[in-house]
């Protein structure tokens, strides 16, 4: 049984989800605002939080950060619509366990609850251990992931970009070079980092992945380098830092550009001296760690803006790898889709053979804003929904089907799709909505504030609809 909190300003969703999870044996409660949620979480130890991304007093990202500051072990699942996929992916980057899209499907909710509980239990078991006696018990470190597996499970692809990536991994893996991996969110930066580790001489040692984007200024030093009991308010136990845990192996620092200046200074010292010192300790510990970092913006550009130390950048920049977004790897799209489908089959115990041609065309036309992570989630969802031996259009979100039809629209092109091309009533309605929005936007020369006023919706809603219909290129 899990203790679960539901956060949504829609009381109908709260009550339905609350009743459903209670019937499944879980201890559930719900609140309708971020403020009420934080009050509840300060007084209760919660295993899983289902949190709507859009709340009246905050948004999912801000609330996620606050929840993680209260309890890093709480698994947060974001509730969102498909028009918010890019935002949801960004929230996952900041520490959310996963996201689920409306309408909520019972089987998908239960699957996520089971996976989140398994993840929470695995983290606690793998990180809680003693150093001598109960007084020196070491605190669990939720960001630690000692990954095991076959590096061949990384699907590189067959495009020119994929061949280049494969060659780069093969060349740099046997060395001790520090590596910078660049790429959009969801392009598989951590998988590439692990593949480098798994093909190196350190492959039998730990691989520790740390999301720097989820580290607060106050906790970053403790998470990376550890602390002694009593070294600051709230340090009730000794904590071993990520670098110490990675000793002999590889540490992967994702979103490295988010580290504050003082932590960058400490990190530079660690790299130069190959020693770490826990907060509150006078003892230095020798470490031998290979460092791989990742960023979605060129560190040279961040350095030029004065937000990243130039000397630290040059320490990292012994070798760099650029991961192209999925939309630029058309030859690899179905290769990845087949890979994720095999994984979904194994997870769900199904034997789905593939995709109908219409689905393949949708996949090839879609621009994949969330890259591989988004594709994986869409295929898992489709595999869960299908009762056939092949993935059909009915199992895909209609928003994706619709958007793929308009991904080439710009202000110099007239659309040619009519409502008779739409597969069902929902798609026809979306088409009509698209037509009306485009008509009004053209009348006001793509002034979004004026268009929202005429359409009687707020500007944020209009912006999300324009993103769904891929109209943002127009203004």
Summarize the structure.
The protein has 19 helices and 14 strands.
Walkthrough of the structure:
Helix content is 44%, strand content 12%. With 475 residues, the chain is of the alpha/beta class. It folds into 4 domains: 3-127, Rossmann fold (3-Layer(aba) Sandwich), CATH 3.40.50; 143-322, Rossmann fold, CATH 3.40.50.300; 331-395, Helicase, Ruva Protein, domain 3 (Orthogonal Bundle); 405-475, Homeodomain-like (Arc Repressor Mutant, subunit A, Orthogonal Bundle). Strand 11 (275-276) and strand 12 (285-286) form a beta hairpin. The longest helix has 22 residues, at 106-127.
SSE topology:
Layout lengths: L2 E5 L3 H13 L3 E5 L2 H10 L4 E5 L7 H11 L4 E6 L4 H9 L4 E4 L4 H22 L32 H13 L6 E4 L6 H10 L8 E5 L8 H6 E2 L11 E2 L1 H4 L4 E5 L6 H13 L1 E2 L8 E2 L3 E6 L3 H6 L5 H7 L2 E4 L10 H16 L8 H9 L5 H15 L12 H7 L20 H19 L4 H8 L3 H10 L7
Parallel strand pairs: 1-2, 1-3, 3-4, 4-5, 6-13, 6-14, 7-10, 10-13
Antiparallel strand pairs: 8-9, 11-12
Helix pairs in contact: 2-3, 13-15, 16-17, 17-18, 18-19
Instruction: Report the uncertain regions.
Output: 123-153, 408-420
**Share of helix, binned:** 40-55%
Main beta sheet strand tally, sense and closure: 5 strands, parallel
Assembly context of the chains? single chain
The helix-and-strand class reads: alpha/beta
Mean pLDDT: 82
CATH class of the largest domain: Alpha Beta
Based on the structure given, which CATH architecture of the largest domain is correct?
Answer: 3-Layer(aba) Sandwich
Terminal Cα span: 49 Å
Q: State the strand order across the main sheet.
A: 2-1-3-4-5
* Extended strand count: 14
CATH topology grouping of the largest domain: Rossmann fold
Write down the domain tally: 4
The fraction of residues assigned to DSSP E strands is 5-15%
| Helical run tally | 19
Specify the overall morphology.
globular
According to CATH, the homologous superfamily of the largest domain is P-loop containing nucleotide triphosphate hydrolases
CA-based gyration radius? 24 Å
